[in-house]
Amino acid sequence: MAHFILVHGAYHGGWCWERLIPLLNAAGHTAAAPDLPGHGADPGGLAAQRMEAYVECIARLIDTTPAPAIVVGHSMAGAIVANVCETRPDRILRAVFLAAYIPADGQSISDLAKTDKGSRVRVEMTEREGLKAVALASENLGEAFYNDASAVDLSFAAAGAGPQSAAPFRAKAVLSEANFGRAKKSAILTLNDQAISPELQRRMAIAAGCDPILEIASGHSPFLTAPAELAHLFVQSAARKPL
Q1: Which of 102, 127, 151, 192 has its CA 20 to 30 A from that of 208?
Q2: Which of 156, 127, 138, 126 is nearest to 221 (CA)?
């Protein structure tokens, strides 16, 4: 039995994993899907949406698990998980990067996103709670994040999605070969992704030393659009056996 910590990406909350958790439970595993600071039901608001707060949140959760956990980072959360690997290398059984940004030392999410000519993400600057925020342009949630979702599923996602502080996108990763470098890492590439191109996903996974690098024929958010297939890949990660 493995314990999974599922870390959501930008604009989302722990709610996005709700279809996946019962499938992991049915396979004999346990899972936690926390709201990052300022997301979902967390009361912190935009001011709490900082990379260092995200990393501290997941590190604290890892510290409470009785055994090393499998930590999954989706999209923006790939950078969070990379930083947690640096601070808790002995408490992570395996890091799984799902359609994720995986920075190298000194890189930010923004640095990586600027290289991705295949991304269809379009954002608008807005103001919420007196702070500058990033919001997806009209209809872009469906175009980029849920291009393979049904109308019902897209409506569900739109109801939960919220604004995002830009600060975590600019945070530079501080990673070392001694810590991040020795963590066991897997990647799951989403082959029909319109938010982070599969080409960039693959380049980042190879550069980070992910093994295995698995694939799923889905858009950016398979936890909603292909949960059974995704759960199967997670179970493979728990067994530490490549497909």
Answers
A1: 192
A2: 156
Global confidence as pTM: 0.96
Q: What is the pLDDT of residues 8-55, one digit of tens each?
A: 999 999 999 999 999 999 999 999 999 999 999 999 999 999 999 999
**CA distance linking residue 115 with residue 111, whole number of Å:** 7
- Cβ-based neighbours of 213, under 8 Å, separated by 6 or more: 186, 187, 189, 202, 205, 206
Distances (CA, A) of 126 to 12, 72, 116, 123, 135: 17, 30, 23, 9, 7
Specify whether the CB–CB gap between 176 and 201 falls below 8 A: no
Nearest CA to 24 out of 2, 47, 43 is that of 2
What the chain holds in terms of domains, given with CATH numbers, is: 3-239 (3.40.50.1820)
Do residues 165 and 49 touch, judged by C-beta distance below 8 A? yes
Give the amino acid at 80. I
Query: Are the C-beta atoms of 6 and 32 separated by less than 8 Å?
Result: yes
* 75 neighbors 157 (Cβ within 8 angstroms): no
